[in-house]
UniProtKB/TrEMBL annotation:
Protein's name in the database: Transcription and mRNA export factor SUS1
UniProt key word Manganese: no
Subcellular compartments: Nucleus, Nucleoplasm; Cytoplasm, P-body
Gene assigned in the entry: SUS1
Origin species: Tetrapyrgos nigripes
Any one Gene Ontology BP term: mRNA export from nucleus
Function statement: Involved in mRNA export coupled transcription activation by association with both the TREX-2 and the SAGA complexes. At the promoters, SAGA is required for recruitment of the basal transcription machinery. It influences RNA polymerase II transcriptional activity through different activities such as TBP interaction and promoter selectivity, interaction with transcription activators, and chromatin modification through histone acetylation and deubiquitination.
Length: 97
């Protein structure tokens, strides 16, 4: 039986809610942010955000976010991306044992 987009979205919401309720979401998030801070990525992105914001005539959050979005995702170091994905996989494996 094929799984529809609505089913996937519902499943995603359930997993995220469970992770938030039991504190795993914050643990994963904190681990990711710590790695990014140690790597200097957070400071770099904050500086880029400031530079973009200063050069905007009419500062709007949505414009700022969209202008940085691609660069932010591309800028995540591959090693950290792999570590975070592995942590998520381990979490999901535990949920379905």
């Amino acid at each position: 039986m094929p799984v529809g987009a609505a089913d996937v979205e519902s499943f995603h919401k359930q997993i995220k809610r469970r992770a938030i309720e039991n504190g795993d979401w914050e643990r994963l998030r904190s681990s990711f942010l710590t790695k990014m801070a140690e790597n200097g990525w957070l400071d770099e992105m904050m500086q880029k955000g400031k530079n973009v914001a200063q050069n905007m005539d009419n500062l709007r959050f949505e414009e700022l976010r969209s202008s940085l979005s691609r660069e932010v995702h591309k800028g995540i170091p591959l090693e950290i991306r792999r570590e975070v994905l592995q942590s998520i996989r381990l979490y999901l494996d535990k949920q379905f044992d």
